[in-house]
Fold:
Amino acid sequence: MIELMKDNYMYGTGNGPDWHVHIDPPKRKVKSFYEESVEAIEYIHANKTGRFQVLYSGGVDGQYVIELLRRLKMPFDVVIIHLKDNEGKFLNGHDIVHAHEFCKSRNISPKVYDLNFTEFVESGKMLEISESITCCSIALPGTMHICSQLDGFILMGTDPAYVIKKEDDKWFLQELEYNHGSLRYFAKYKLNGVPCFLQYTAEMTLSYLLDPAIKKLVSNVDPTKEGNNAVKALVFNNGSNFNIPVYDPMTSRKKYTGYERVYNSSFAKEHPNLAIYTELRKKWNGEYLEAYDECVARLSVNQ
Structure:
């Protein structure tokens, strides 16, 4: 099977306060994020088995992956998860509307998988998955459950390298323990695919951090921005000209997880199989931080 991360350049260890992420620097001079994405997907395409199955919820990460595959004329299917309650009502309809609209605009017929979230929780399956991969996220287990049912090569965008502003307007690379849950799930259950494509190679990670949009972000030119969700589409468009829309809270293109209605429901607060996640977060909610300037300098040793 293909590596979950190229050359295992990034991996996490420990839990909670002991969570640490090891990141190797690229061994060669990096190109633009788009050029590195092309090289990475061409490597994966040459070494994978099965047709690409692209998980897509309507965000810009998944849109970037789809546009990349379309441009390179690589065959793929789009997979959209419909999260529903016991009555068949949508829980993530506000999020996946973008996925369906985008697929329609590109003449793509997506594969739709329904997940009865109420049943998933009450059966204990959701908690079983979380405990098996030490993951405190409510959102991740359902996606992993659907991934386990897919035939082909699973490809998930997930986030690229994430930078966040902390106290004193200082910027850091942030790696959250629960975001690595997909890597642990794929490894534990030997799934065929890449769950974190946008960080698949050391070159992709450094090229993203060096992109002009990220450099401008961490220079605090716009003090209202506190993370890279607001500008990552600019990185995706740089050199690709995909024209992916930027997240903007003042427009219809907002950043969602798809689980907003779950988080705010009485079901989440009252059902013991969901209430227990408060305790899980005390154990498995690690945050790895590395100062942006120091991180970039360390990863640029071969530039």
